[in-house]
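Hello again, I could really use a second opinion on something today. I owe you a coffee for this, so here goes:
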Amino acid sequence: MKHVELDKLDQRILEVLQRDGRISNQQLAAQVSLSPAACWRRVRALEESGVITGYSAHLAPERIGLGLCVLVNLSLQRHTIDSTAEIERQVSSYPEVLQCFAVTGNADFVLRVIVPDMVSYDRFLNEKIFTLQGIAQVNSNFALREIKNTQTIPVGGAMT
């Protein structure tokens, strides 16, 4: 995928939109010192180039009964393209899995799973994870408390 060059105005637009995706174009334009038409064109270009991939609401999982967060390490028996692709397809279909990463190190995949409680997690393991073909080992790490959870990507030198 091609890298998109962002100027200072694009960076500022992205910073504001990551904080408030529901901001009106008028308000966004005022915050970044652009005309509404120019601001709209820039946001549209960022969407069309794939820099902005969507907009969503952030939820508090514990407020809706999903208070158990588990980081699950999966290790495979064999590493073939077909078996790996099938596991990726299956795991991606599970609503309990919020994130799935193919990783290096002690596991092949790390999943971020959210469920109501331990009973639900046990059911998730038995009915979904343990039924996957080619899994050699499953290791569960239960989150005690959340220290940082953000989808905000630093733009414009924020990582230096």
About this structure: The CA atoms of residues 70 and 110 lie 10 Å apart. The chain has a mean pLDDT of 95. Strands lie at 68-76, 97-102, 109-115, 135-142. The domain at 8-48 is CATH 1.10.10.10 (Arc Repressor Mutant, subunit A).
